Amino acid sequence: MSKLQKKKISTEKKKRKEPGVDANGAASAAAVKPASPGPAVKAKQTSAEAGAASASPIARAAEFFREVKVELKKVTWPTRKQTTGTTIVVIVFVFVVAAFLGLFDYSLSKLVQVVLT
User: Fold this and answer.
1) 3 state DSSP class of 1
2) Is the pTM of this model over 0.90?
3) CA end-to-end span of the chain, whole Å?
4) pLDDT for position 35
5) pLDDT for 85 beyond 90
6) Is the pLDDT of residue 30 over 80?
7) Residue whose C-alpha is closest to residue 86's, from 75, 96, 78
8) Residues 89, 97: contact at Cβ < 8 Å?
9) Per-residue H/E/C for 45-103
10) What is the mean pLDDT of the chain?
11) Torsion-angle region of residue 77: left (phi > 0), alpha (psi -120 to 50) or beta?
């Protein structure tokens, strides 16, 4: 028996063992659950959410900046050499694109002059 056939048999056995699923993998009517809990169920707030909702704007701003500080400590900042290298690449690219667009603009303006005269 090949590995593929063994794998197929084992997956078929698993499908049969799952409650509420028939042999073809389709869910039975008893296993289908409603998508939403309904209007009678109210969402519970965690204590952090409840505290944040009732906190003053100044306290929320202070918490925000504390979280920003923590996140910025996780950032891997580039070295001076990497920053200098990428800056030079960007400046060179800008000059190349500017030269290309300038040449293209000059060519089109001369073409329009020739057509109109």
Assistant:
1) coil
2) no
3) 84
4) 56
5) yes
6) no
7) 78
8) no
9) CCHHHHHHHHCCHHHHHHHHHHHHHHHHHHCCCCCHHHHHHHHHHHHHHHHHHHHHHHH
10) 77
11) beta
